[in-house]
Each structure stands twice: as structure tokens, then as C-alpha cells.
Amino acid sequence: MQVFKFGGASVKNAHGVRNVAGIIQQQNSSQLLVVISAMGETTNALEQLTWAYLRRQADTDTFWQRIRANHEQVIQELADGDTSAFSQVYDLFAEVESLLQREPDPYTRPDQVYDQLVSYGELLSTRIVNAYLNQMGLDSYWVDARRLIRTDDSFREGKVDWKQTCEYITDSLAELLNSSVVITQGFIGSTREGYTTTLGRDGSDYTAAIFAYCLEASNVTIWKDVPGVLNADPKWFDETVKIDQLTYQDAIELAYYGATVIHPKTIKPLQNKHIPLYVRSFLQPQDYGTVIGNFEQRLPISSFIFKMNQTLISFHPKDFSFIAEENLSKIFGQFAEYGVKINLMQNTAISFSVAVDNRPDRLARLLAGLQEEFRISYNEGLELITIRHYDDRTIERVLVNKKLLVEQKSRYTVQLVVKDLGTHGL
Ligand SMILES: Nc1ncnc2c1ncn2[C@@H]1O[C@H](COP(=O)(O)OP(=O)(O)O)[C@@H](O)[C@H]1O
Ligand SMILES: N[C@@H](CC(=O)OP(=O)(O)O)C(=O)O
Hints:
The protein contains 14 helices and 16 strands. The chain is α/β, with parallel strands linked by helices. The chain folds into 2 domains: 223 residues, Acetylglutamate kinase-like (Carbamate kinase, 3-Layer(aba) Sandwich), CATH 3.40.1160.10; 123 residues, 2-Layer Sandwich (VC0802-like), CATH 3.30.2130. Strands 3-4-2-1-7-9-10-8 form an 8-stranded mixed beta sheet, with helices on both faces. α2 crosses α5, α4 runs antiparallel to α6 and α7 packs across α9. It is globular. The termini are far apart. Adenosine-5'-diphosphate (ADP) binds next to loops. Aspartyl phosphate binds next to loops.
């Protein structure tokens, strides 16, 4: 059996849904499970809606009406005058509206409310695609991923209970896949008590890997708006090269350092079961794309990953002690507690520095707990550049017009924290 995953960009409008339906219709494997994300920018819009609802803002309903109108427009364009096939989408609208009419429960954590509301992006998109496939005469079956993906109660970052999840998935789907294409949601799951959870932003690729792992799929295809994995993000680099084959190891490293084309958690479960991962273009579905698997050859060319809006924080123990296990464990403890991911770290005898994504609220709370023991210096507005399989020429190329603050090299990877000098620096 195969797993397909379509992200938000592929289903952002009615044209996209028709295109996705065409790709599903054309695949000739008898067993297919399709994981779909929320349409276009819906997840961002639902995030805004959630914060507005929790703060009881007067414009809460305006946010919701915009989301509803976007989906209704897609339905109108797909339905050909008769929207009855899409009635379950309207049921979901009613569910959200009844939730928004209630006062926020002061005893429910904001992150839990977030998951409850934000998950509607995937529920809506999958209902729409499924209804459209049925309207086309294709025998597809909509499955609620919350019934199958069991997580703990780390809302917004649910940790998967693999054993229970695989049991649910195989029990519910093994037979069904013989008769229907199964359509389900990326990104969402639920706790043992039945509360909806999400798996972390951009987590739908990961969902595809979870289903593939549990069902021992023969392969997974994630359909993107790029021809495959390129040696850099085309949004930042003019001249990119498509990589035809990638080892799991190189793919993990690229995703880990921030190549957003694949969610970092996606690769490991597939590697464990030797399941190949194809990255292909939903715009040119006939093209081959990239395949990630067990290959001998490492990445054939240098790959570049840019992370913008980075903050470099340095800790200096106030008591003039060296940086050692004891003070490091305090620092790491704070980062773990506030869920701030360290993108790069480096220490000298008397200081410890990290580069992190700039999230001012979280960082302020995190640093407050360390200020008594450490003098903390802070440098914002930086970029973190990672080059996998670097050489001197590639480093020179990315440092044009940049001030280098930190350089860290390992055998295959170099990471550079830089400040853009703009034209003034020339
Ligand atoms: N190395 C890379 N190769 C290809 N695309 C990349 C790479 N790094 C970042 N990207 C970006 O990833 C985007 C596709 O991922 P994403 O937007 O998350 O897709 P979706 O939301 O549809 O799953 C591309 O549009 C591209 O800008
Ligand atoms: N819709 C979710 C999950 C996801 O993975 O989306 P996409 O596949 O469009 O990146 C998000 O935006 O975070």
C-alpha cells in the first residue's frame, strides 16, 4: 500500500482540490491512504481565531467568518450548483460556531483550546476533498485521524503513543484499504480521554510517516510545490539544483537544520522500516522528484539552509566559575521547560552561547529564571546558515556582505551565525 500526503499549498483553492483529486484518481496502486493538511493559510487563520476567542475579542466572529467564507467559496466552485455532497462540511461549521458561542472555560489550558479549534482546518479540508472525490464517482472513505493517532496530553506538541496508534490503525484500516481510498487528516490526534491534540506546526508530513510505519507501506509520497528536494530553498536562492536521490541520513540532517521541505520527525520512522519517501511536485505530477532511501552515495552537492530571525544568547556565570555540567544543566533545564529549541550551541571556558528562533515572550520568561546566576547578553536580528557538505568556496559565497559572529564546523556540516550588513556594510 502507498501513502500520499498533500500539504496546504496543494489544496489552497478549488483548482488545487481538482488537481489533487486528479492525482489520486490516476494512481494505480490498489491500496492508497491520503493524508491532507488544512487549506492554504487556514492554520494561521485558526491560530488568530483561537487567540481572539480566548481573549474574548470583539472581532472573534470576523476572523471565523473569513475562514468559513474561504471554505464556502471552494465548495461553491466544486459543487456545480448542488452542495448536498458537502453537507458534512456544514456540520463542521456548526460545531465551530457552537464552540465559539460558549465562554472560554477558565479551567481548560489555552493550548488545549488551541488544538480543539485549530484541528478544524484539517477536518474541513479532508471533508471537502472526500466529498469532491465521491462526487467524481471515486470510492473514497473519510477517516477521523483523532480516533487513530493516540498522543499524550502535550497539547500543541502531542507525543505519539506508537504502540496504541499502530494497533488502532491496523485494526481500523487494513481491511478498509482493500475496498476504498482512505482520506484522513494530517497534524491531529487525540489523548486517551478523547481530547484533540496537534502534533506541532507543519506536522502533517509526520502523520504520513506514522500511517506508513504502522501499515508497513511500500512507499510514501509527499506532494509539494517544488520539483523535489533542492539544494536550497528556492525562496532564498536563485540557482537551485534538484537532488534525485538522498540517503535517510542526509535527509534527516537537512530537515533537522531547518530545510522546511520535510518535517524533521518524518524520516526516522520511515528509515526504521526501510520505506522510501518520494518528494514530488503536485504541479508536475508526471515528473520523478526526489527519492529518499537506503542509498550508498551521500549528498552529491552542497546544500544550504537559511534560518532568519535568529537570536544569539550568551550566558556568563556571575560567580566567575567555568561553564561546566552543573550550570549547563540549569540552562538546558530552562530551555526544556519553555520548549525553546536550540539551533546551535557553543561554549568557551567562561561562556555558553545558543542561537534560537526569536520568540520574545517565551525567551523573556525563560531568561528570567537564569538572570540571577548568569550575566546574559543578547543579539537579535541574525541569520543562521547551515551548509551540509561544505567547502571554502561555499562558505565564502554565503558570507558576502555578512558579519560572521559564530562558526561551527563538523566533518560534513558548517553552521554560521551572521549579521546581514545590508548595503551599508559594503
Ligand atoms: N531544500 C529545499 N528543497 C525544496 N524546497 C524547500 C527546501 N527548503 C525549503 N523549501 C521550501 O519548502 C516549501 C514546501 O514545503 P511546505 O510549504 O511546508 O509544503 P506543504 O505546506 O505543502 O507541506 C517550498 O515551497 C520551499 O520554499
Ligand atoms: N496545517 C498544519 C499542518 C501542516 O503540516 O501543514 P502543511 O502540510 O501545509 O505544512 C500547519 O500549517 O502547521
